Structures are given as C-alpha cells and as structure tokens.
Amino acid sequence: MKTPILMYHSIGESVPAGFASCVVRPRQFCNHLASLAESGTSTLTVSELVRLRRTGAVPQRTVVLTFDDGFADFLHHAMPALHASGMTATLYIPTGLLGGEFCGLPTLDWGALAVIRDAGFEIGGHSVLHPALDRLSPERALDEVRGCKHALEDRLGIAVDSFAYPFGFYTAQIRQTVIMAGYASACAVGYDFSANHDDPFALRRMIVTQNDKRVDRLSHTAFLYRLRSRGWRSVRHIARWGHG
After folding, report:
1. Do the beta carbons of residue 39 and residue 58 sit within 8 Å?
2. From CA 174, how far away is CA 136, in angstroms rounded?
3. What's the rounded Cα separation, in Å, for the pair 97 and 93?
4. Is 177 exposed, middle or buried, given 0-12, 13-18 or 19+ CB atoms closer than 10 A?
5. Whose CA, among 51, 159, 206, 244, lies 20 to 30 Å from 61?
6. In this structure, are residues 94 and 69 in contact, taking their beta carbons and an 8 Å threshold?
7. Are β-strands 62-68 and 90-93 bridged in parallel, bridged antiparallel, or unpaired?
8. Longest dimension (CA), the chain
9. Which residues contact 153 (CB under 8 A, 6 or more apart)?
10. pLDDT per residue as tens digits for the range 171-187
C-alpha cells in the first residue's frame, strides 16, 4: 500500500517573485482539504505513519500533510482550515530562520510555534539555516541537524522525532547523520507516494504547487514528477563531482 505524503510550503496571498509555484492560495488549500474529505481520506502525522507501519496497521485512504520552512501564514490560513476539516499535519522548521524572513515571506516566531504545538500539530526538524546538507562537511551537517532538534526540544518542551532534508537532498552519510542526531524518521522528496516498505529515513513526498487543483488526483501526475526528479538528480550529480 502507498500513502501520499504531500509537501506544502506557503498557504497565503503574498506571492514573492521566484517562489510563486510554492505558494498555494488559502481558498485553493481549502478546496484541497474538501476534496480529501469528500473522498473519505483521513490524515496522520509523519511520526504516526511511521509508527503504524511497524505494526502493519496504516488505515486505507490515508494522507500525510507536511509543511516545510515554517512560514508565518500557516498560523493564519492553514491551521484554521485544518482544524475546520478535522485534519492534522507535520511542520518542518528551520530554527535559525524563525522570526525573520525566508524566500521573501515572513516566518513563524517561537511564540507562534508554541501555539501550533498546543493545537496538536507535529513539529519536526528542518536544519538550522536550511543549507543543502550534502554540500557541508560532516561536522557542519551534524551541527545543522542536531542543533535544530535540540533547539526545538529545549524551547518547546517536546520530543522532535522527524526530520526533513532541506531541498530534499541527502546522501547515505547525511541519512546516517540524521540517525546519529536521534531522529526516528526523515522525509525527502521523491515525487511519488510513499510505500509501506519505504526507508523511514528516506520517505517519499510529492510537492503540492499552485497548479495542483485536486490533491486527491496527484497520482495522475506522479510519473511526470519522477521524470523531472531524475533529470534534476543527474544535473546535481554532475555539479557535485565536477563531471561534464
């Protein structure tokens, strides 16, 4: 069985240049949730999905909603819509960017993050400053991964069990770094639905963009996304090793 793990970023009206595809309008997001509800789909957090997979008890018609980068509009637009729909989500937070701006949009601060915690949403790590971890030295990568977890746990008083690789980039070494830091799971991208046999430290997600009208039909576009992903990985491999 495959479970869609959907990857959102901003849910808002402000659309910065160069980041437009990652901004889903609030009305469109509400339509996404409505289409899921109409199809009888329920939601889990990432950590709930991982735990249920260990026992083989993942319900049919389940989706996982994730939000990367900690944009402030989650509090104002996404959270009320999720509450109204009776749905949950996992937020992946780069701690060093809280209370500032990222990609031209304001980010949550610690107070807002505490409100989201109290509302019952899962909070996961997304590094400190959102670098491409596979471009860092092992020591710096560990600082980014572990420092984020410690900051979230210390400031919010919660266990932080899940991580998301910035930009979706990771290697075997970065995967091991996440394990060493004490996480129980990690999300990549993958442009596909997540199968029950997925490595819990390489969970596949699909990016939701402003062009996706109905998230209950994303399987129709999964093949095209995978082709794009393979092409980008090839380009990145050449850049990383200096070939070509």
Report:
1. no
2. 10
3. 8
4. buried
5. 159
6. yes
7. parallel
8. 52
9. 159, 160
10. 999 999 999 999 999 99
pLDDT mean over 188-201: 91
Query: Taking the mean position of all CA atoms in its chain, how far away is CA 92?
Result: 6
Question: Exposed e or buried b for every residue in 27-51, given b needs 16+ CB within 10 A?
Answer: ebbbbbbeebeeeebebbbbbbbbb
Domains, the chain, with CATH or none: 2-241 (3.20.20.370)
Q: How far is the C-alpha of 155 from the C-alpha of 30, rounded, in Å? A: 31
Residue 192 pLDDT class (50, 70, 90 cuts): confident
The torsion defined by the Cα of 86, 89, 198 and 218, in degrees rounded to 10, comes to 70
Length of the chain, in residues: 244
Q: Which pair of structure tokens corresponds to residue 243?
A: 């070939």
**Among 55, 19, 65, 30, residue whose Cα is nearest residue 164:** 65
CB 68 within 8 A of CB 92: yes
Tell me what pLDDT residue 58 has. 93
pTM, to two decimals: 0.90
Cα dihedral angle (106, 111, 112, 113), rounded to 10 degrees? 100
What is the rounded distance in angstroms from the CA atom of residue 88 to the CA atom of residue 42?
A: 9
Give the CA angle between residues 77, 126, 240 to the nearest 5°: 125
- The answer to whether residues 126 and 145 touch, using CB atoms and an 8 Å cutoff, is no
Q: What is the mean pLDDT of the chain?
A: 89
The Cα 107–Cα 74 span in angstroms is 9
Residue matched to tokens 């491999």: 237
How far is residue 106's CA from residue 69's CA, in Å, rounded to a whole number? 10
- Name, in order, each residue with C-beta under 8 angstroms of 167's C-beta and a sequence gap of 6 or more: 132
What the block records as the tokens of 48 is 């709930």
